[in-house]
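Input/output pair, single chain:
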Amino acid sequence: MNKLEDKITVIVPAYNSEKTIGKCIASLLNQAYQNFEIIVINDGSKDGTLEELAKFNSDKLTVITQKNSGVSIARNNGIKRTYTPYLAFVDADDYVSPDFLTHLMEGYGIQDVDLSISGVNNVGLTNKKNLTYERQVCSSQQLLADILKSDGVKGYLWNKLWKTKIIKKNNLFLKSEISMAEDLLFTVEYLLHTDKIFISNFSDYNYVYYANSLSNRVSLTYNNPKYKEAFSDFLKVNKEIIELIPEDNKIGRINARACAALIASNYIRRIKKEENNIQNKNLVRELRSFGKKYITDVLGRNTILPLKPRISFIITMCCPNLMSMLDKLRSRS
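Output:
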């Protein structure tokens, strides 16, 4: 018998997702854990997304259409319509294993757990490792210190099962004015109101990589014309995280400062691929000034950065033109 206190709402934002939404919804309806509902927020799709959704005859599925407003507003709309104790996010491009919800719910069988996290399979990426973790229960303080690690649990919304009451009690929503890392900021804000975190040893979320995915917005190699907006937002979020992490979490604050400084360094490297005009020169100067403030955090005190990015950071901060030349040589090889 399904218990209301164990029910999950799965929020799926969808925009022009006719090619992927079918597989996504089918994977959710095929869950071993059946005490859930799906709310698809159709973000003003202009393709056949609604027609694909109409093919499913399930009382678990609700479709809400809004005018095209962006993924954050779509997710916020879903949060407002959630009245179950637990909440999950799944992107319309992705799909999940049959035990996705089962393994996440296992975490809530442990006393005082406030967030449950799954591993991630990267589909379509041959050069990127899947994110698999050791089964454990850790403190929110520890997770705040580790969340920026390249092989950590990340700030993704969609590999986690959230408590709705924590979100609503603290009025947590995605910031729609931010185009990059708004999910990371939401996760950090949520963690500030938690105690214990469960991390599963199963990887049940299948993230499907596309060339135009959001992560490419801050790539050093992908030619994204809106890279300045993306890097600026990414840096802004990480600056906010520095202020959000409590003073007594010293490692967390060091790691946040190191990450923000590295983003500034990568931003410089991306700018140097463009025309060397006055505006870009001033921006590079500003970013170098910011990065240099946290040079000790990058070089020796953090626990998240491997050796290679630390070296690239130093070269960029001391001699950005040399780093630019090295980047150009690397791109030709």
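The mean pLDDT is 92. The chain has two domains: 4-210, 215-332.
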